[in-house]
Amino acid sequence: MVLLGAFSPSPAVAEEVKSAFKGLSKNSDKPIDILSDTLTVYDEKKLAVFKGNVRASQGSSTLRAAQLDVHYVGGANELTGQPDQQQAAAEAQPPAAGDSGPDGQIEKIEARGSVVISGEDNQTTTCDHLVYDVPTQKVTVSGNVVINSDEDQTTTSDWAIYDVAGQKALVGGNVVLSQGQNVLKGDRLNIDLATGESRFENTGTTQDGSRRIRALLLPKEEKKKPGKEKKKKAKEAAQP
């Protein structure tokens, strides 16, 4: 019980993963401010490609990457701020049934290359690739995933999926959770973000092929109280 008390991963892991991506969900109704070196719009494909030192901010969350692909529906004018040449002609015609209109709505965001997500409470997540599916509110990160908190806790994995609506997270592929000298290793980590409960499991796909969870838990060292130290020295001095 002493060992387990020294390292309680469940609520800490849940809060860490939740904080890492909550900016994408908490501020989903706020505008996204994107800066980049270049922007290319492929309106026929409903795709806007931002390249070069990309920085996207939404509320308290900031995303940096080499490239950001924004998939949208409707017109591109709402995304780029440029006037839509077809908008005037479209407005002159009666709207067809089921027509979403000229306003652009983001459907999916894809970030590639040295992706860094910075959120509240000094939470940062780095990865090679990120996909944010807006309608389903699911964030998928993959490739050298590292989630850091300001409480000396780090989670590394091959991939992670954050279900915003369902308040669930799944971290998979050689998962390593470390806090100080304490380490937990497994193949998959299921997290209930609503309750803070987390469950490690192995599917036999780890590097060593085992299905067992490995944990190294070190108890915290008790700080010596000044009073006890003085009494101990006095007792030793009194002995013949």
From TrEMBL:
Residues 82-97 have a biased composition (Low complexity). Residues 76-105, 199-240 are annotated as: Disordered. Residues 34-164 form the Organic solvent tolerance-like N-terminal domain. Pfam families: LptD_N. InterPro entries: LPS_export_LptA (IPR052037), OstA-like_N (IPR005653). Keywords: Signal. GO terms for molecular function: glycolipid transfer activity. GO terms for biological process: lipopolysaccharide transport. Residues 225-234 have a biased composition (Basic residues). One of its GO terms (cellular component) is outer membrane-bounded periplasmic space. PANTHER family: LIPOPOLYSACCHARIDE EXPORT SYSTEM PROTEIN LPTA. This is Organic solvent tolerance-like N-terminal domain-containing protein. It comes from Methyloceanibacter stevinii.
